[in-house]
Amino acid sequence: MAGFEGSLFRGFTLQQIEVFLTVAKHLNYSKAAKELYISQPAVSGWIKKTEDMLGMQLFQRKNRGVELTPEGLELYTKLEHVYQRFRVSVNMVMRDMMSAPKFDIGCLNFADIVERTRAAAEQFHGENLQVDVCYEMFNYSELRQKLICGELDAIVTLDFDVRGEINIRSKVIGAMTHYFFFPKEWGEGADAAALLGGRTLILEVHNGEEHALEVCRRFGFEPAQVRHANSYLEVTKAIAAGDCFTIGGRDLAKESPFLPSLGCLPKEGFEEAISVAWYEKSSS
């Protein structure tokens, strides 16, 4: 197997490293593009440039995604921890340069969670006027990475996301009510599995696919496929067109012009715990 020593890394940019690691994490160009907020052709272009520079293939096609070649796996193993330590170091330098203390919070892009985060940030700042408190929305993959790298001091997310995470401590601080939204013409039956099983699930790009699939399984069904949209307006528009459903809080559709076209199950909704989480480094 070819090695990665010497001049191979000359001219290797941080963007190339980030694109490579993101594709290696998802093993899917489309999902990597969504996380990086660039186009799929751009991801393909960066990977090809990296492969050309190294003179070796890093990924090979497999079904709907890709898999790492032996050389790609070797590169991923060498780069992953180095890149994470680099992000931690950069963040420490930047924080040391700040003239005033700062507390950064990340949260999922659900209205209930954003509102709870905003209120908590305002309360914290009111009790600590010398601290600049900021919050920003990300998907869970980004929240987790930024928390571990020290770019966020705390995150507010669904308890499902952080449950069982190593070195991430959490505390339940509330709950939000979720529903299935679907085209009203599909019917108003009480059985979500019979109504939604085998149909297409659409999610706003920030929302976690793994969590949404787990919710579907909890109700006894699997969607046929998962699509993503850039905004909740696009989500509700696609649902109103009659070919997909989604999962979200009441706020998802309340301001959408497509609300009259949407059905909703279950009538009482189902509760999801909300947690605040923080990172504790291992003592070992």
Written account of the structure:
With 284 residues, this protein is of the alpha/beta class. The protein folds into three domains: 88 residues, Orthogonal Bundle (Arc Repressor Mutant, subunit A); 83 residues, D-Maltodextrin-Binding Protein, domain 2, CATH 3.40.190.10; 96 residues, Periplasmic binding protein-like II (D-Maltodextrin-Binding Protein, domain 2), CATH 3.40.190.10. The strands form three sheets. Strands 4-3-5-10-6-9 form a six-stranded mixed sheet, with helices on both faces. Strands 1-2 form a two-stranded antiparallel ribbon. The two termini are 33 Å apart.
Keywords:
alpha/beta, D-Maltodextrin-Binding Protein, domain 2, 11 helices, single chain, two-stranded antiparallel sheet, 284 residues, disordered N terminus, Arc Repressor Mutant, subunit A, 43% helix
If classified by CATH, what would the architecture of the largest domain be?
3-Layer(aba) Sandwich
The CATH fourth-level homologous superfamily of the largest domain? Periplasmic binding protein-like II
Question: Would you report the number of β strands?
Answer: 10
Overall pLDDT confidence: 83
**What name is given to the CATH topology of the largest domain?**
D-Maltodextrin-Binding Protein, domain 2
In spatial order, strands of the major sheet run 4-3-5-10-6-9
- Given helix and strand content, the structural type is alpha/beta
- Distance between termini? 33 Å
Q: Main beta sheet: strand number and arrangement?
A: 6 strands, mixed
In DSSP terms (H or I, runs of 4 or more residues), the helix count works out at: 11
- Described by the principal axes of the CA atoms, the overall outline is globular
Helix content, binned percent? 40-55%
Strand-residue proportion? 25-35%
Low-confidence stretches: 1-9
Tell me, what is the CATH class of the largest domain?
Alpha Beta
Radius of gyration: 21 Å
